Amino acid sequence: MRAVIVAVGVAFLISLFCTPIAIRVFTRLKAGQPIRAEGPAMHQGKKGTPTMGGVVFIIATVIAYVAGHLALTTLPDQQIAQVEPTITALVLLGLMVFSGAVGFIDDFLKVRKRNSAGLNKRGKLFGQILVGAVFGVIALYFPSSMVDASGAATNVETVGSTTLSFIRDIDALQVGKVASVVIFIFVVMAATNGVNLTDGLDGLATGASVMVLAAYALIAFWQYRHWCADPNYTEKYCYSVRDPLEIALIAGAAAGACVGFLWWNTSPARIFMGDTGALGLGGLIAGMAMSTRTVLLLPIIGGLFVIITMSVVIQIISFRTTGKRVFRMSPLQHHFELAGWSEVNIVVRFWIIAGIGVAIALGLFYSEFLANVS
Q: What is the 3-state secondary structure (H, E, C) of 258-279?
């Protein structure tokens, strides 16, 4: 727990105090956010606000991970709390950094062209597929090699699983490695685009991401305390995952970094996360679902992202089939803007929806544990 707290604190402080530096740097570089002309009129006042702020909390998360590992060296029990970086960390941080890199290219092109077009759809889609495929393969083809005092393997696990999972792996839903990689690519695309579509109002995606990441930190730490690989855990009911403490540490660090960034990103935002931050967070959240074996629980934990994404899907299908729009504008948050709601009211109420999804998911996770130990 000490290492997780250290990581959260370091990430928060770096993000809180380095974001103003990023604001000044991006302002001097004239890296202002282009605003769509067809968007709500009130958004035109945000034109020129620095973007690509996701760079700050991505870097803060990586540095905090290192700090958390330094804290691990002070723990008395090194048998469980591994101090060496793991494949799990490579996958999770790699997903965040390289998904963020795809978003950075998009943001850079927007700033350079001085319009909201950025990277074309095919380029962004290719980037998401490539990142998902590379880290999906790493997650499924590199098993751990933890051994006990006698040298026998104690936890031969991969980061991902060849079985679909809800609160844990569902044994009846074996899909194989190739299909698992394909499914993970879909999860990466869904999560990155879900966060990106939510990132339309000051602080909305950041605050929702804090809740989702905090939930994964709790889930992973609970799995660590009831881990099948822990020789000190004697109960029959445990979680067969790989490196749950690593997962909790990274999730906590990312949540802390987002809280620090939210200080400057909340209304009126002085900086936007941009596609850099949105795609980076989406990639990390997808990795969290895979590594904690809760892939089918993700739509509930990230319920707000699902709702907003579905509003876009419904709008497109309705317009193309009937010529009519269901919403004044999509994504959903813009519908309520055009209906007269203030930006702050929309953000707070959508945060409440995000919190409800997280609470339901955590309730399902914990109730499953209680049902099996009682």
A: HHHHHHHHCCCCCCCCHHHHHH
